[in-house]
């Protein structure tokens, strides 16, 4: 049975083909979050998305001639960045959505690099033990059937000394105490952004799951405030004036509320294999 693809990618894919969007499909990073009342500027969100990508690549400490796996590679923006600045790399991107892989296929290898795009599930990686020096997983882990199984697979395919860098979104317990029932909060996210099987990370926190998989935790950084301004761009300015136009808009408004009111955490993560 094919893995489910989040419905919001229908809009992102259509936008990419219209020329309305770039290769990054994650939220953005602001070193200095703008005032809430500031007017969004053209190109601001794209620059923030690039900055989030840069922050995570800095965490990964890439070097030439490494083998790098991007899990949930989106439209290939991260691999394109690596391809343009490093040499002799083996770059592999995986995704469950053939439409996204088709978009990725437009990226051509440069600098003596090899690029491979594959359909694959993050919880059953089709690679040999110790195949990669680095694994990247940017804003995709919350979609996976099991964070624990992903950590286990990442540890298996990393070489000794290898590094996993990721970003992830987890709801805080305070989201259970909103004026909306917790089940309705989870359902709204599931319909618009699902699969999102474990929004409260009930199977364990990142440090616990990594330790169980045999990975050491190098860094967990709370980037909630740095990423929060993204919703000025992901939610229409007219949203809230009436009922949401569709389930994806309703989910986007829910995610905005959770983020702005402090009911979720956005983490940058780095783990290493001894």
Structure notes:
It contains 10 helices and 7 strands. It is an alpha/beta fold and about 270 residues long. The protein has a single domain (about 10-20, about 55-270), classed as 3-Layer(aba) Sandwich (Rossmann fold). Helix 5 crosses helix 7 (about 205-215) and helix 6 crosses helix 10. The radius of gyration is 18 Å and the shape is globular.
Q: Could you name the key traits of this structure?
A:
274 residues, alpha/beta, Rossmann fold, 7-stranded mixed β-sheet
Quick structural summary:
With 274 residues, this protein is α/β, with parallel strands linked by helices. It contains ten helices and seven strands. The chain has a seven-stranded mixed beta sheet with strand order 3-2-1-4-5-7-6.
């Amino acid at each position: 049975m094919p893995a489910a693809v989040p419905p919001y990618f229908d809009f992102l894919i259509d936008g990419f083909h219209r020329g309305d969007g770039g290769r990054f499909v994650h939220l953005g990073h602001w070193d200095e979050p703008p005032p809430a009342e500031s007017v969004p500027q053209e190109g601001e969100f794209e620059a923030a998305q690039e900055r989030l990508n840069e922050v995570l690549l800095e965490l990964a400490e890439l070097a030439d001639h490494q083998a790098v796996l991007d899990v949930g590679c989106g439209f290939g923006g991260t691999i394109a960045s690596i391809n343009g600045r490093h040499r002799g790399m083996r770059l592999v991107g995986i995704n469950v959505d053939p439409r996204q892989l088709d978009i990725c296929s437009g990226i051509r290898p440069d600098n003596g690099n090899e690029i491979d795009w594959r359909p694959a599930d993050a919880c059953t990686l089709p690679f040999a033990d110790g195949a990669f020096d680095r694994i990247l997983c940017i804003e995709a882990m919350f979609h996976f059937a099991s964070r624990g199984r992903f950590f286990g697979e990442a540890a298996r395919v990393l070489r000794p000394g290898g590094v996993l860098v990721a970003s992830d979104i987890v709801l805080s317990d305070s989201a259970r105490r909103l004026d909306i029932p917790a089940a309705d909060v989870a359902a709204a996210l599931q319909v618009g952004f699902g699969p999102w099987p474990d929004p409260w990370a009930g199977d364990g926190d990142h440090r616990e799951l990594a330790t169980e998989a045999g990975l050491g935790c190098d860094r967990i950084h709370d980037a909630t405030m740095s990423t929060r301004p993204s919703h000025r761009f992901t939610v229409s300015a007219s949203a809230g004036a009436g009922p949401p136009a569709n389930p994806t808009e309703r989910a986007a408004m829910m995610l905005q509320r959770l983020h702005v009111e402090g009911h979720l955490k956005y983490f940058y993560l780095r783990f290493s294999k001894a």
